[in-house]
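Supplementary Note 3. Input sequence used for the single-chain structure prediction.
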Amino acid sequence: MNVFDFDNTIYRGDSTADFVKYCMMRHPKALLYLPYIGWVSLRYYAFHKGTKTQFKEKMYRFLKACDTDADVESFWQKKRGNIKAFYGDIHRDDDVIISASPEFLLKPLEKLLNFNVIASRVSPVDGTTTGENCYHEEKVRRFSEQYPNAEIDEFYSDSYSDEPLALLAKKAFIVEGETLKPWNYNRHKKNLRI
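The predicted structure, written as C-alpha coordinates, is reproduced below.
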Protein backbone atom coordinates (compact mmCIF):
# COMPACT_ATOMS: atom_id res chain seq x y z
CA MET A 1 0.00 0.00 0.00
CA ASN A 2 1.25 3.47 -0.91
CA VAL A 3 0.09 6.56 0.99
CA PHE A 4 0.05 10.13 -0.31
CA ASP A 5 -0.58 13.57 1.05
CA PHE A 6 -2.82 15.45 -1.41
CA ASP A 7 -2.26 19.21 -1.66
CA ASN A 8 0.99 20.18 -3.39
CA THR A 9 1.83 16.47 -3.45
CA ILE A 10 -0.36 14.85 -6.09
CA TYR A 11 -2.53 17.94 -6.61
CA ARG A 12 -0.88 21.00 -8.12
CA GLY A 13 -1.76 23.66 -5.54
CA ASP A 14 -3.93 23.73 -2.45
CA SER A 15 -7.35 22.23 -3.21
CA THR A 16 -9.02 23.86 -0.20
CA ALA A 17 -7.79 27.35 -1.14
CA ASP A 18 -8.80 26.72 -4.76
CA PHE A 19 -12.25 25.55 -3.66
CA VAL A 20 -12.78 28.58 -1.41
CA LYS A 21 -11.94 30.91 -4.33
CA TYR A 22 -14.17 28.87 -6.64
CA CYS A 23 -17.13 29.16 -4.24
CA MET A 24 -16.57 32.87 -3.74
CA MET A 25 -16.79 33.38 -7.50
CA ARG A 26 -19.96 31.26 -7.82
CA HIS A 27 -21.80 32.61 -4.78
CA PRO A 28 -21.65 36.37 -4.18
CA LYS A 29 -23.21 35.86 -0.71
CA ALA A 30 -20.13 33.84 0.26
CA LEU A 31 -18.07 37.02 -0.22
CA LEU A 32 -19.78 38.41 2.87
CA TYR A 33 -17.72 35.92 4.90
CA LEU A 34 -14.37 37.31 3.65
CA PRO A 35 -13.90 39.86 6.49
CA TYR A 36 -14.65 37.11 9.02
CA ILE A 37 -12.23 34.71 7.30
CA GLY A 38 -9.60 37.47 7.36
CA TRP A 39 -10.16 38.04 11.08
CA VAL A 40 -9.96 34.35 12.07
CA SER A 41 -6.87 33.93 9.86
CA LEU A 42 -5.19 36.86 11.61
CA ARG A 43 -6.11 35.46 15.04
CA TYR A 44 -4.71 32.04 14.20
CA TYR A 45 -1.61 32.87 12.14
CA ALA A 46 -0.49 36.21 13.62
CA PHE A 47 -1.71 36.02 17.22
CA HIS A 48 -1.57 32.21 17.61
CA LYS A 49 -5.08 32.01 19.06
CA GLY A 50 -6.87 28.65 18.94
CA THR A 51 -6.09 25.37 17.24
CA LYS A 52 -5.93 24.63 13.54
CA THR A 53 -9.19 22.66 13.88
CA GLN A 54 -10.93 25.64 15.49
CA PHE A 55 -9.57 28.01 12.85
CA LYS A 56 -10.72 25.83 9.96
CA GLU A 57 -14.17 25.29 11.44
CA LYS A 58 -14.63 29.07 11.60
CA MET A 59 -13.23 29.57 8.11
CA TYR A 60 -15.60 26.97 6.62
CA ARG A 61 -18.68 28.89 7.78
CA PHE A 62 -18.81 30.40 4.28
CA LEU A 63 -20.27 27.04 3.15
CA LYS A 64 -23.63 28.21 4.51
CA ALA A 65 -23.84 30.45 1.42
CA CYS A 66 -22.98 27.66 -1.03
CA ASP A 67 -24.51 24.63 -2.71
CA THR A 68 -21.59 22.49 -1.67
CA ASP A 69 -22.45 19.19 -3.38
CA ALA A 70 -22.99 20.89 -6.75
CA ASP A 71 -19.96 23.13 -6.19
CA VAL A 72 -17.69 20.15 -5.47
CA GLU A 73 -18.88 18.32 -8.59
CA SER A 74 -18.31 21.29 -10.90
CA PHE A 75 -15.02 22.14 -9.15
CA TRP A 76 -13.55 18.74 -9.99
CA GLN A 77 -14.77 18.99 -13.58
CA LYS A 78 -12.52 22.04 -13.86
CA LYS A 79 -9.67 21.07 -11.54
CA ARG A 80 -9.19 17.35 -12.14
CA GLY A 81 -6.37 18.27 -14.52
CA ASN A 82 -4.38 19.55 -11.53
CA ILE A 83 -3.48 15.98 -10.58
CA LYS A 84 0.26 15.72 -11.26
CA ALA A 85 1.57 13.48 -14.03
CA PHE A 86 3.94 11.52 -11.78
CA TYR A 87 0.96 10.21 -9.82
CA GLY A 88 -0.55 8.61 -12.91
CA ASP A 89 2.73 6.77 -13.45
CA ILE A 90 2.88 5.23 -9.97
CA HIS A 91 -0.83 4.87 -9.12
CA ARG A 92 -1.95 1.60 -7.54
CA ASP A 93 -5.52 0.51 -6.81
CA ASP A 94 -4.89 0.32 -3.06
CA ASP A 95 -3.46 3.87 -2.76
CA VAL A 96 -4.58 5.92 0.23
CA ILE A 97 -4.76 9.70 0.12
CA ILE A 98 -4.59 11.31 3.56
CA SER A 99 -5.14 15.03 3.80
CA ALA A 100 -6.08 17.94 6.03
CA SER A 101 -8.44 19.10 3.28
CA PRO A 102 -12.14 18.43 3.92
CA GLU A 103 -13.42 14.94 3.29
CA PHE A 104 -16.44 16.21 1.33
CA LEU A 105 -14.05 17.83 -1.16
CA LEU A 106 -11.80 14.80 -1.74
CA LYS A 107 -14.25 11.87 -1.40
CA PRO A 108 -15.67 12.32 -4.95
CA LEU A 109 -12.17 11.59 -6.29
CA GLU A 110 -12.25 8.05 -4.89
CA LYS A 111 -14.34 6.85 -7.85
CA LEU A 112 -12.85 9.24 -10.40
CA LEU A 113 -9.21 8.37 -9.66
CA ASN A 114 -9.55 5.00 -7.93
CA PHE A 115 -7.97 5.58 -4.54
CA ASN A 116 -9.14 5.71 -0.91
CA VAL A 117 -9.47 8.99 0.99
CA ILE A 118 -8.91 9.88 4.64
CA ALA A 119 -9.44 13.60 5.30
CA SER A 120 -10.74 16.15 7.78
CA ARG A 121 -14.37 15.54 8.69
CA VAL A 122 -16.12 18.80 7.84
CA SER A 123 -19.84 19.34 7.31
CA PRO A 124 -20.49 20.51 3.75
CA VAL A 125 -23.57 22.35 5.05
CA ASP A 126 -22.14 24.65 7.72
CA GLY A 127 -18.45 23.83 8.12
CA THR A 128 -18.67 22.24 11.55
CA THR A 129 -16.03 19.61 12.20
CA THR A 130 -16.17 16.15 13.70
CA GLY A 131 -12.85 15.26 15.25
CA GLU A 132 -9.50 16.95 14.75
CA ASN A 133 -8.04 18.46 11.61
CA CYS A 134 -6.33 15.57 9.76
CA TYR A 135 -2.78 16.88 10.17
CA HIS A 136 0.57 15.65 11.55
CA GLU A 137 0.00 12.97 14.27
CA GLU A 138 -3.75 12.98 13.56
CA LYS A 139 -2.97 11.50 10.14
CA VAL A 140 -1.29 8.53 11.82
CA ARG A 141 -4.23 8.07 14.21
CA ARG A 142 -6.78 8.20 11.39
CA PHE A 143 -4.73 5.87 9.18
CA SER A 144 -4.32 3.33 12.00
CA GLU A 145 -8.03 3.54 12.79
CA GLN A 146 -9.02 2.74 9.20
CA TYR A 147 -6.18 0.31 8.39
CA PRO A 148 -5.15 -1.19 11.76
CA ASN A 149 -2.69 -3.78 10.44
CA ALA A 150 -1.60 -2.17 7.20
CA GLU A 151 2.00 -1.59 6.21
CA ILE A 152 2.93 1.46 4.17
CA ASP A 153 5.27 0.56 1.35
CA GLU A 154 5.87 4.12 0.16
CA PHE A 155 4.79 7.51 1.50
CA TYR A 156 4.79 10.79 -0.48
CA SER A 157 4.34 14.35 0.78
CA ASP A 158 5.44 17.88 -0.05
CA SER A 159 5.93 18.75 3.64
CA TYR A 160 8.14 17.53 6.45
CA SER A 161 5.17 18.15 8.79
CA ASP A 162 4.11 14.66 7.63
CA GLU A 163 7.12 13.02 9.26
CA PRO A 164 4.96 10.86 11.59
CA LEU A 165 3.58 9.02 8.53
CA ALA A 166 6.96 8.95 6.79
CA LEU A 167 8.39 7.13 9.79
CA LEU A 168 5.82 4.35 9.33
CA ALA A 169 6.71 3.75 5.69
CA LYS A 170 9.34 1.41 4.28
CA LYS A 171 10.31 4.26 1.92
CA ALA A 172 9.32 7.92 1.97
CA PHE A 173 9.65 10.67 -0.60
CA ILE A 174 9.42 14.44 -0.53
CA VAL A 175 7.62 15.83 -3.58
CA GLU A 176 8.81 19.07 -5.20
CA GLY A 177 6.65 19.78 -8.23
CA GLU A 178 6.93 16.60 -10.31
CA THR A 179 10.27 15.65 -8.71
CA LEU A 180 10.51 12.93 -6.07
CA LYS A 181 13.41 12.97 -3.61
CA PRO A 182 14.21 10.55 -0.80
CA TRP A 183 12.87 11.77 2.54
CA ASN A 184 15.50 13.60 4.58
CA TYR A 185 14.95 12.34 8.12
CA ASN A 186 17.32 15.02 9.45
CA ARG A 187 14.91 17.78 8.38
CA HIS A 188 12.03 18.42 10.71
CA LYS A 189 9.20 20.87 10.40
CA LYS A 190 9.71 23.29 13.27
CA ASN A 191 7.07 25.16 15.25
CA LEU A 192 4.10 23.09 14.14
CA ARG A 193 0.75 24.53 15.18
CA ILE A 194 -1.81 21.78 15.66
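Residues 34-46 form the longest helix (13 residues). The two ends are 27 Å apart (CA to CA).
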